[in-house]
Amino acid sequence: MxxxxxxxxxxxxxxxxxxxxxxxxxxVTALAYGLLAYxxxxxxxxxxxxxxxxxxxxxxxxxxxxxxxxxxxxxxGESNLLVYSSRTLxxxxxxxxxxxxxxxxxxxxxxxxxxxxxxxxxVSLYFTSPFTNLPLLLFTVTxxxxxGVSVSFFGAVVYLRSRAASTVVGVAAVATVAAAYxxxxxxxxxxxxxxxxxxxxxxxxxxxxxxxxAAAVALGVIAFSPGSSxxxxxxxxxxxxxxxxxTFDDTGxxxxxxxxxxxxxxxxxxxxxxxxMLFLVFxxxxxxxxxxRDIISSPGLAFATLLAxxxxxxxxxxxxxxxxxxxxxxxxxxxDVIAAKFRALLLxxxxxxxxxxxxxAALFGFGEMLLGxxxxxxxxxxxxxxxxxxxxxDPNELLLNSKLFAAxxxxxxxxxxxxxxxxxxxxxxxxxxxxxxxxxxxxxxAVGILLYRRSKVKWLDKExx
Amino acid sequence: xxxxxTEDLTKKYDSLIALDHLSLEVExxxxxxLLGPNGAGKSTxxxxxxxQTKPTSGSAKVLDVDPVADPxxxxxxxGVLPEREDPPSFMTPREYFDFVAEVRDVDLDxxxxxxxxxxxxxxxxxxxxxxxxxxxKQKVMLAQAFVHRPDLVFIDEPLTNLDPVVQxxxxxxxxxxxxxxxxxxxSTHDINVAEEVCTRVGIIQSGELTxxxxxxELRSEGGRLIDEFLDEVxxxxxxxxxxxxxxxxxxxxx
Lengths: 465, 254
Prior knowledge:
The structure holds 2 protein chains of 2 kinds.
Chain A lengths: L1 H12 L1 H5 L1 H19 L3 H20 L5 H7 L6 H4 L8 H26 L1 H7 L7 H28 L1 H20 L3 H6 L2 H6 L3 H21 L15 H5 L9 H11 L5 H20 L1 H6 L3 H11 L1 H8 L15 H31 L1 H26 L3 H4 L3 H24 L4 H35 L1
Helix pairs in contact in A: 3-7, 3-8, 3-23, 4-9, 4-16, 7-9, 9-10, 9-13, 15-20, 16-18, 16-19, 16-20, 18-20, 18-21, 18-23, 19-20, 20-21, 20-24, 21-23, 21-24, 23-24
Chain B lengths: L3 E10 L2 E11 L4 E5 L6 H8 L7 E6 L8 H7 E4 L11 H12 L6 H9 L14 H13 L5 E5 L7 H16 L3 E6 L2 H7 L2 E6 L2 E7 H6 L4 H14 L16
Parallel strand pairs in B: 3-7, 3-8, 5-6, 6-7
Antiparallel strand pairs in B: 1-2, 1-4, 8-9
Helix pairs in contact in B: 4-5
């Protein structure tokens, strides 16, 4: 599987295109660390922050559990030769899927964990700030990632088995963490994660920190039941209902894409989950981490930027349940499909984003969110335009291409970075910052529309070649 | 107006020549079969004619429309059954036909129900496509190519995954559809299908159209399509001259 994965991607992107991916991650991360260190963060704080970031990255990756039974077809099924072609061999499916997961973890380690951790070294050297020993950091960072994956995967699998049980588990988990935080026992929760072992390495902290991880992995594997969606069951016709939504599409494609999204395992909840993940991390940081709270003077601008960026993950979901081949026999082209994805994205991404902005308004005040709420759709269009222009209808695969990823990072940063700087500078220069962010968002919107329009031509040509 | 016309149609993938100066004509009301072994270029030919891919050189017309210049218009006028595609996973067949009708902007007027009953999957109309068997998926795909009653239908390997009873039913349905004056362009490697269903057959191998035979004429001459086909394929396999060089064979079309 490792060899086939390598061949698959190196054939798609070229050997160096794929092998260079960790180098790009390293470079981008080192630059980000540098900026944060320059803002006042110590390397020690960055190390702790890295554990949180990879844990939430893990939560996001583990949300694949939401597609559970569909995953058998779409992720581990016929379309995935890595698993499917081995089904004729005398190997159990559980072992095949386990091998697939191990292979993925190895790839995640080399593609993300290693470069994300190593990127701390140049920052540490430049700012002559002490750096924790590398093997320990790699071990605990990888552990934090795996914890995120296994917790989210377990939660998603429970959700698919029983909505009520998942609600109980979810509420209990959030209540436990919240209670621990407000009663001053938050450190106790931390000791139950690899971060606890990182903070105070000892045999006891190792056992304490990794036992919940092992338990989450075991529970997830036990609870995972592919194909439990109920085969051959009847479904009432919902396509017409989707057509009643304000899609402004007379081709019927948007309704079909929305139906795919709602019908696939996890429904629209997976959209709210992936949009909310990054957002909730940031809310947590702004609420409870002093240094972040001090420098972010306009959380509304920062939240809107983050939520707009999360539309990229919504676009990933929108391309997970269909293939360009589904439309080849119909009187539509790639441009029509891209237009339909755009409409579906606006509907789903903006709905989820505004729900989260409402939550943020409840926490930080309505006035704080007003500017961000106004700029959100403009920024969303920009990030969508950039994504669709660069990756077409296959964003999942192409984002593993190092050259493309680097270019994509620059395009995202070109707007996101000034927006975050504006969120910091807002308290000093409110009027100027507001004017600047409005002008930037309008310009980004225009560029987004341009890229979207050009993408229809670009991917139409590619489709037919 | 010809239903299909191609001239010197060529498609190259790097060093592979999938189609090599293919020229053919299909009259309206015909059931034309493109017969050839695996990898002969049949699917590539259909993909070009239905605007799914562009030729490297040459030209084509489908119902007088250029599939390279206006692939969407071609697909609006025709029906297509691709060889390896399944219906969308998260729709039921009923929803899929509603979707097809919406995209094509037509009223199916109960046609989907009729096709489902004829092909024997009416009781599966509300089951998700992803949960259907391979044969049932093939039936759904067959139906979507016909439900809007196009003047021309392209079918790539029509009987894949179907049991013998359904195969016979499909063959009958194709000929009945043709009785209404509609044109069928099908590709197959199954000589029996070509012989039983088609009015005219073009034999293709290595991207070249090596012969075209009127099936009725062949029968009246006492010939068999299998012999024609094996003669053509023999050249490829053994490098020997075909036996039927003595016979009068139309090389290419038109």
